[in-house]
Amino acid sequence: MELNKDLVAASAAPLVLAILADGDSYGYAIIKRVAELSGGRLQWTDGMLYPVLHRLERQGYVVSQWRAAENGRRRKYYRITKDGRAQLAAQRRQWQVVDGTLRGLWLKASTA
Amino acid sequence: MAGGGRNPAGSVAESEHRVTTFAGQPLEEQIAQWRAYVRRRRVLHDADVEELEGHLRDQLAALMGAGLAPEEAFLVAVKRMGDLDALSREFARAHSERLWKQLVMTPGGPEAPAAAGRAETLIVLSLAAAAALAVKTPVLFGIRIHPDEELPRFYARNASLLVFPLLTLYFRWKRGWEAGRGLWLAAPFVAGALFANVFPFRPGSQTEALTMLHLPIALWLAVGVAYVRGRWFANGGRMDFVRFSGELVIYYVLIALGGGVFIGFTMLLFNAIGMNAAWLAAGWLIPCGAAGAVLIGSWLVEAKQSVIENMAPVLTRLFTPLFTALLLAFLATMAWTGSPIEVKREVLIAFDLLLALVVGLVLYAASARDPQAPPGWFDGLQLLLVLSALAVDAAALAAIAGRISEFGFTPNRVAALGENLILLGNLAGTAWLYARFLRGRGSFAAVERWQVAYLPVYAGWAAVVVAGFPRLFGYR
Predict the structure, then answer these.
(1) Which stretches of B273-304 are DSSP H helices?
(2) Cα–Cα separations (whole angstroms), residue B146 to B157, B263, B268, B344
(3) How many CB atoms lie within 10 A of CB B346?
(4) In a 3-state reduction of DSSP, which class is residue B475?
(5) Sorting pLDDT into bands at 50, 70 and 90, what band is B164?
(6) What's the pLDDT score for residue A103?
């Protein structure tokens, strides 16, 4: 199943924030986590995650830090901020409204 | 130079984790090629490329760990990374300050520039000519510039009114406003014309001098609104306007230098044949040139962004330490000798200018800085500059307040007091946000937001001085 592009784009920020809320992480690991959680159905073009991360950082929702990686290179880790958690909560409420509304409609459609 | 065998440096198990051990292998070369290819995109900075490369390597390690051959893994990893054009576009969107460097160089599509460039050149030249002529229109009503007059009062009051509307027109055209929209932008200019000319100023009055100084500041905001196409709060437009303003100043100074040389030679040549060209210089060359140069300079900033884009950061880096040292030395000397600040008009103006310059240095450093870079020594220096400016400002404020309580209010003192308080507010906010950023408790974006949010305050106060002061102080 191919997810709609707009839907993928809209869900990117809350997904990233939610994953970071579980602990600091870096780009590759975030993508892997999303693929895992969605059972591979939510596929991002890998590169596209980075502009999303940078935008979130710019908005002050995450902060980044270069740390040494086990392969001897360095890796940019992201951490969610207080503002980021507030933003995540707000996004969550918004998605719940959409989800709840759709659920109601579909329930009606299936019982009718 | 394919080395033949696999991975001489490490065991197979190690290769799953340590991709760097492919040194000397074709894969490492392919990665290098990929890196060079990515680097060519100007919106992607070195740190971004490093981050993306790290991702590519993680992906490669995982794919090869799953049993893919290096070449296959490379192809898959690059494919998954996605289309680089689309990626750079997204990066440019996330970092609008980088977009700024490219935006104006290629307006529209690849074919558009030549024709659009010619049209723009024509429009700018006619607008510059119109500005030059606008400066001469008052002559039709019998208001002339006399070469021996110290300050042509009418012209000094109306200078910005003769030029800025044309600049606003230019941006209206350049940003493609629809014909009917944005007509309200004329309102500030009409109001400015009224306030500059209906009051019965006496020659040499303080309120008139204040109008001359403050009207351009107030009207510059109207130019800014046209610059950002009326979307004052939309994505980074205000910061772009700040950059534009600063670079216009640089260009304007350069043009003025050239103009000075030109005028010098004009005088010299005509002097050689026994004629005095002072009337030509004072009546035509200087006023018309000064007016036209605003439009030409704006056009150059818009068109030749990349030529000078690195100038502002270099200048701020150069002068931030010098001004920090100056302010600290001044404070130390004042504390040592105990001599108070003398409250004269020139001194007050000098202090306001100094503080405005400090704000400018901070603003400019902010506009050129990558907001995602971690705090560095230069940020510490900036904080020191802001703190010392705060101390100097406090001393100046105390002096003005003392003067006012002793000798009462004058237009100059109140205007200077207002400007001081405004700059004090700005510097205090900046210091607070900067300190938070340095301690890792806030982001640099907050400093940037604070600075751009403050812009209308300057214009607002300038408008108050222009509109309110003359009557309030009885045209003194």
Answers:
(1) 278-280, 286-303
(2) 16, 17, 20, 29
(3) 8
(4) coil
(5) very high
(6) 92
Phi, psi of B348 (to 5 degrees): -60, -45
Q: Does A54 touch chain B (CB under 8 A)?
A: yes
Residue A71 has its nearest CB partner, among B20, B81, B90, at B20
Contact A60 B95 (CB under 8 A): no
Burial of B109 (0-12, 13-18, 19+ CB in 10 A): exposed
- Alpha carbon separation from B120 to B223, B241, B337, B359, B420 (Å, rounded): 18, 20, 58, 33, 41
The backbone torsions φ and ψ at residue A25, rounded to the nearest 5 degrees and listed phi first, read -155, 175
- Distance from chain centroid for Cα B134: 27
**Do A59 and B445 make contact, defined as CB atoms within 8 angstroms?**
yes
- Cβ of A47 and B18 within 8 Å? no
Low-confidence stretches of chain A (pLDDT beneath 70)? 1, 112
Beta-carbon separation of B18 and A72 below 8 A: yes
Place of tokens 């576009």: B89
- A27 shares contact with chain B (CB less than 8 Å): yes
Instruction: Tell me if chain A has a CB within 8 Å of the CB of B123.
Output: no
Q: Is the pLDDT of residue B476 over 70?
A: yes
Q: How far apart are CA B351 and CA B357, in angstroms?
A: 10
pLDDT tens digits, B315-357: 888 899 999 999 999 999 988 888 777 767 677 778 888 888 8
CB contact under 8 A, A47 and B52: yes
- pLDDT tens per residue across span A21-34: 999 999 999 999 99
Structure token pair of residue B445: 């974006």
* Chain A residues within 8 A of B54 when measuring between CB atoms: 26-28, 69, 73-76
* pLDDT tens-place string over residues B166-185: 999 898 888 877 766 777 88
Q: Average pLDDT for residues B177-203, to the nearest whole number?
A: 83
Task: Give the C-alpha distances (Å, rounded to integers) separating B360 from B217, B249, B386, B388.
Answer: 14, 12, 11, 15
Query: Mind listing the pLDDT tens digit for each residue in B34-91?
Result: 888 887 776 777 788 888 888 998 888 899 998 888 888 888 888 888 888 788 877 7
Structure tokens at A100: 């709840």
Residues on chain B touching A47 (C-beta within 8 angstroms)? 52, 55, 81-82, 84, 87
